[in-house]
Design a protein that fits this description.
Length: 99
């Protein structure tokens, strides 16, 4: 799956970023292998095991979503939930200013 798109008319860069299907936070994973079909666990940025600085313990959002990241043939990764559905993505827009 392609992750980055460029609108040639406006110069706008669009990037698809995977998000947690439960709470829409970022999804974290670590997959070193570039071999097609290689897998590793993925988890939500709000997972209790995720590294973060705790500033407000009472209002801290904890999300237990876990999934799996799989290396595709083109070197990209796909992230699936436990029912083997692709996680949703959000679109991040970035416009590069011309010099
Ligand atoms: Zn989550």
């Amino acid at each position: 799956m392609r992750r980055a798109y460029i609108n040639k008319e406006t110069g706008e860069h669009l990037k698809l970023v995977p998000i947690c299907p439960k709470c829409r936070a970022s999804v974290y994973w670590s997959l070193i292998s570039g071999v097609e079909g290689a897998r590793a666990p993925a988890h939500c940025a709000n997972n209790a095991s995720a590294t973060r600085i705790i500033t407000d313990l009472e209002n801290m959002l904890i999300c237990d979503w876990e999934g799996v990241v799989v290396r595709m043939r083109d070197g990209e990764v796909n992230i699936y939930d436990k029912k083997k559905r692709l996680v949703p993505h959000k679109v991040v827009r970035k416009r590069f200013r011309s010099p």
